[in-house]
Design a protein that fits this description.
Layout (H helix, E strand, L loop, with lengths): L2 E2 L5 H6 L18 E2 L8 H18 L2 E5 L11 H22 L5 E3 L12 E4 H7 L5 E8 H13 L6 E2 L1 E4 L2 E7 L2 E2 L5 E7 H4 L13 E8 H11 L15
Parallel strand pairs: 4-11
Antiparallel strand pairs: 1-2, 3-5, 4-7, 6-11, 6-12, 8-9, 9-10
Helix pairs in contact: 3-7
């Protein structure tokens, strides 16, 4: 049976209000834990206190920011949601990167495990974006060698999951098929890859990101960059082109 140690969490709610009234908090000592079970009754005073904050949060999270005319499944290779996730991160990141450097990012690589749910045709809300990407991962741009892109290709060729890709196409285990934005991979060239800080550290076994030539943090969360994208378009346009051509 789970146990819950009661704490004065309501203090943070009180201090988050616009009021400048000060509250004195005294330490509360409890000798027993409260068991979480069907016999636990709601605290009506607490419910009354948090009700306006709960309502405001629900109104914010339920705001419709876009619409998808098709289902957006996450599973499988080249899935609609995997394609969309990478495409929108690449598009929005390029707006930042081009302004700073006058050039575009070459490609985007994310991870299947970072997509936390699928969507059916219909409205997309603020809450949906948090459900899609609940983590506070930062968007980063890594400059890597052509050899590192080859390592990435080998990893993706043998992966059992359809990791999101954008800006790259290839046939599994066919090195000569690798195209970066329509051009054949040059092992002597450096490429810019937008991803997140979790993968940059080798998360999900993506060790090809370790020891890049350089890294730039765009100082924006992946969730926020996705939010920006959805807010720009009344209706989402999904590119269903295959990135891994034989899957």
């Amino acid at each position: 049976m789970k146990k819950l140690s009661f704490s004065l969490l309501f203090v943070s709610i009180l201090f988050s209000s616009c009021s400048k009234q000060l509250y004195q908090v005294q330490k509360a000592n409890f000798t027993e834990n409260t068991s979480i079970n069907s016999n636990l009754k709601e605290d009506q005073k607490m419910n009354t206190m948090i009700a306006p904050y709960k309502l405001e949060l629900e109104q914010t999270m339920d705001k419709v920011i876009s619409y998808t005319p098709i289902d957006l499944p996450k599973d499988g290779f080249n899935s609609a949601l995997a394609n969309l996730s990478c495409d929108m991160v690449l598009e929005e990141s390029n707006l930042i990167f081009e302004q700073k450097h006058g050039e575009e990012i070459d490609l985007c690589v994310l991870n299947w495990g970072g997509i936390r749910r699928s969507f059916t045709k219909g409205d997309l809300t603020v809450k949906n974006v948090y459900e899609l990407m609940p983590f506070d991962n930062e968007v980063v741009v890594a400059t890597v060698s052509g050899e590192k892109i080859k390592e990435m290709f080998q990893f993706m060729s043998n992966a059992s999951l359809g990791h999101p890709l954008s800006g790259i196409q290839f046939i599994s285990n066919d090195e000569n098929s690798i195209l970066i934005n329509g051009e054949k991979l040059d092992l002597n060239k450096n490429y810019t890859v937008v991803t997140n800080d979790f993968l940059l550290k080798g998360g999900d076994q993506m060790n090809f990101f370790i020891d890049p030539i350089s890294v730039e943090n765009l100082n924006i969360k992946q969730r926020d960059i996705m939010m920006q994208y959805f807010e720009k378009y009344d209706t989402v346009q999904v590119n269903l082109d295959k990135r891994i051509l034989d899957k």
